[in-house]
Amino acid sequence: MTTVLMYSTRICPYCTRAEFFLHKKGVRVEKILVDQNPEQLRLMIKRSGRRTVPQIFIGERHIGGYDDLVELDLEGELDPLLQNLPKE
């Protein structure tokens, strides 16, 4: 089953925005707090090639950060990716 995975920290305002944005779309988000787990931080960097949070994945597809998420939505490409996800 496809899921939305978001690498985050406890104090990241863009992470909060991304999570709220996805919740408004009715999508459940699995969060991994990289500030509490250095191994997950290394995995995030390896998977995304980026060191900043949030890093959002829909299934295996790397979306990027909050700005990338919103841009994908504005281009009409986000909703089709979210269609078959478990709802909240």
TrEMBL record:
Pfam families: Glutaredoxin. Belongs to the glutaredoxin family. Keywords: Cytoplasm, Disulfide bond, Electron transport, Redox-active center, Transport. GO terms for molecular function: glutathione disulfide oxidoreductase activity. This is Glutaredoxin. GO terms for biological process: cell redox homeostasis; cellular response to oxidative stress. It comes from the Bacteria. InterPro entries: GLR_AS, Glutaredoxin, Glutaredoxin_subgr, GRX_bact, Thioredoxin-like_sf. Has a glutathione-disulfide oxidoreductase activity in the presence of NADPH and glutathione reductase. Reduces low molecular weight disulfides and proteins. It comes from Thioflexithrix psekupsensis.
